[in-house]
Amino acid sequence: MAKETIEALVDGGEASAGPPLGPQLGPLGVNIMEIVNAINEKTQKFKGMKVPIKLTLDTETKEYDITVGTPPTTALIMEKLGIEKGSGSPESHKVADMSIDEAIQIADMKEDDLLGKDLKMRVKEVMGTCVSMGVTVDGKDPRDAQRSLDEGEYDTYF
Prior knowledge:
The chain contains 6 helices and 5 strands; from the N terminus they run E-H-H-E-E-H-E-H-H-E-H. It has helices at 21-25, 32-43, 73-81, 100-109, 119-133, 142-150; strands at 3-11, 50-58, 64-68, 96-98, 135-137. The strands form 2 sheets. It has a 3-stranded antiparallel beta sheet with strand order 1-2-3, covered by helices on one side. It has a two-stranded parallel sheet with strand order 4-5. A hairpin with a 5-residue loop joins strand 2 (50-58) and strand 3 (64-68). The radius of gyration is 19 Å and the shape is elongated. The termini are far apart.
């Protein structure tokens, strides 16, 4: 049983049979479009971002497995809020405000990479990242938003 592993950085939901995948898959005699379509399906929610993928392929049976990495939480926050970078002095200079809905969407995207055992805990982790970036959550300091989350203020979202 011969296994091939290909790691590549693809555009979320928009991988193609061209480089970097096509040239690596071509010599392996697999259905390139089938694999590209599967990658696009798995990376759809990261549209507009570069996403790391790992493709493990059995060259004899042509079976494959795709593992999708996720961009760092900071990259997802910047993409969602349309900012180029976080604040150089996050305590005094705020660069953007994130809604609770956006925090939940990012926590969903990072589900496999965050430590929180449930969505609420993962949202708190995303809010924690906002602290160091100078991003407020729902118009307040992210630490206050975390306290509000603990106190049940956002329970209708979960």
